[in-house]
Write a structure and sequence with these properties.
The structure is a single chain. α3 crosses α15, α11 runs antiparallel to α16 and α12 crosses α14. By secondary structure, this protein is mainly alpha-helical. A two-stranded antiparallel sheet has the order 1-2. It has a domain of about 230 residues: Growth Hormone, Chain: A (Up-down Bundle). A hairpin with a 2-residue loop joins β1 and β2.
């Protein structure tokens, strides 16, 4: 940690950084590459989880889906916790470093012996991602003056970096692990070791990128405890590091035994709602109405992510067993496509959809936030219906078209682009200043619940197809996706129907 001190390496001031010329500050590019490699690691690991658990740990598909949901739920729950520790104790830089080191340690543990140390290594990456993920995004926001019109363009570029890393890592890691890539270089018994090793390597690159460029960041992301005596501040920081290590065995137990995850999820959500109700006593009627509107967004986001995140669970198993390897005439690993197609489509179409919203806004036709949320569900429903239709392209062995499957991801991506960029922004707009940190935490917690329920939904689909032939499994999985399409359609229509009521609750917030 020697390179991560609390003294800026140069005299670059925050004002100088924010008064940059051109479209993007140079610091944005440094953060872009750090985050790109971290997302490579995260999405590479995410794509490998269920396939590895089924093929190497010999878990049945039902249990693998449940443990996937538990793992991802804790990742997003710890994102909230990591953000709080960064705000109150470590600062963004040290939080980022510590999270990166834990992710490297977890990936190396998995690379050494992924079967014996699977849950131990995964627990390191869960806590590490919690410290890393929320804070680098926050640093991007500090590069701009309030009201700087270039901010949105900056976040769009940063978002592209996220998806570029997800695209490369999402395809490469799972394809290498399965032995579909680098077969002449990697012995068959070491493919999974090398795949997890890739995740460690790119995190090292991510931290080195930040190390050699942080001198240009001025005071951005330094410790919030600089007013304290250096010795006292060091003790508080060391206690934070030690506490995050001590909790790893607890995380390992709860992920490995999903009944403990159930207890955690059944407890943390209701407790948060009780606390919110308690806090709401001190606010005006107008503020309470906005908080109720925020809770509507949170509830529907849980539903959306529960469906969307089948990507890492049931859709991974479907891709492995039921898809061919031909995408527009190119031979590709179907698991790699399932894990990376969404990121490719975000890169290709995010800017285009943004231009559509701008064009509609000029004519006064741009849909409001609630309608965009509703449209997100309609696209989600249409995409899962496309997954359902793959059963009509299957052969007698239960293998169907990767082209049709990928079309489903194209449709779903437009749903994500309608919903995902809005959430964090609307939370800050609807929350009183005193509750903004709590409401952002609830937004991350909603993602955790979405992941958790995604695991349960995927487990139910897998359980229904146990001991069936490959063709029968395809029919069961695709019929399950048809049901999810119907539920997503209903959710979207309900959201559109109640949008006038929720708009009244939002009052002046746009």
């Amino acid at each position: 940690m020697a390179s991560n001190n609390d003294t800026p390496a140069t005299d670059t001031s925050l004002q100088e950084i924010r008064n940059f010329k051109g479209q993007y500050p140079k610091q944005l590019w440094y953060l872009f590459f750090s985050e790109m490699w971290e997302r490579f690691c995260f999405y590479g690991m995410r794509g490998m989880l269920v396939i590895f658990m089924v093929n190497q740990l010999m878990l049945d598909a039902t249990q693998a889906n449940l443990q996937y949901g538990a793992t991802q739920a804790f990742v997003y729950a710890f994102t909230f916790i990591g953000g709080l520790f960064a705000d109150k104790i470590l600062g963004y830089r040290k939080s980022l470093y510590w999270g990166g080191l834990l992710m490297i340690a977890g990936s190396l543990i998995l690379a050494i012996d992924p079967v014996r140390f699977f849950f131990f290594g995964i627990s390191f990456t869960i806590v590490g991602t919690g410290f890393f993920k929320p804070n680098i995004s926050t640093m991007v926001g500090t590069l701009y003056h309030d009201g700087d019109t270039r901010r949105d363009a900056g976040f769009s570029l940063f978002y592209a970096g996220i998806n570029l890393g997800a695209l490369i890592g999402g395809y490469l890691c799972v394809a290498v692990g399965k032995g579909e890539m680098l077969t002449s270089l990697v012995p068959s018994h070491l493919t999974w070791h090398v795949a997890f090793g890739f995740a460690a390597l790119v995190m090292i690159i991510s931290l080195l990128t930040f190390t050699f460029t942080q001198k240009s960041m001025g005071n951005i992301g330094l410790s919030p405890l600089l007013h304290l005596d250096a010795g006292k501040r060091r003790n508080i920081e060391l206690a934070t590091y030690l506490g995050s290590l001590v909790i790893i065995p607890l995380i390992m137990t709860m992920v490995a035994k999903t009944e403990y995850t159930d207890i955690f999820m059944y407890t943390i959500g209701p407790a948060t709602l009780v606390y919110l109700a308690y806090e709401m006593r001190n606010f005006t009627v107008a503020e309470r109405k906005k908080l109720v509107a925020a809770m509507v967004f949170i509830f529907f986001s849980i539903v959306f992510w529960a469906f969307f995140e089948q990507s890492g669970g049931s859709l991974s198993l479907f891709a492995e067993k039921n898809l061919d390897k031909n995408l527009v005439g190119i031979t590709l690993d179907p698991n790699g496509v399932n894990n990376s197609a969404n990121s490719l489509f975000v890169i290709l179409f995010a800017a285009l959809l943004g231009m559509v919203w701008l064009a509609l806004a000029k004519k006064g036709w741009e849909p409001n936030t609630l309608v965009k949320f509703g449209l997100g569900f309609l696209f989600l429903a249409a995409g899962f219906y496309v997954f359902y239709t793959t059963q009509f392209f299957a052969n007698d062995q239960g293998v169907t078209s990767l082209n049709v499957f990928t079309l489903g991801w194209l449709v779903i991506t437009f749903g994500e682009l309608c919903l995902s960029p809005i959430g964090m922004s609307i939370m800050t707009k609807l929350s009183p200043v005193k509750l903004q940190a709590i409401m952002m935490g609830m937004w991350f917690l909603a993602s955790a619940y979405g992941q958790y329920f995604a695991g349960i939904l995927g487990a139910n689909i897998a359980e229904a197809s146990a001991n069936a032939s490959n063709l029968e499994q395809l029919i069961t999985y695709t019929n399950g996706y048809k049901q999810l399409a119907l539920y997503a359609l209903i959710a979207g229509l309900v959201l559109l129907a109640i949008s006038p009521l929720v708009r009244k609750l939002m009052q002046e917030v746009k």
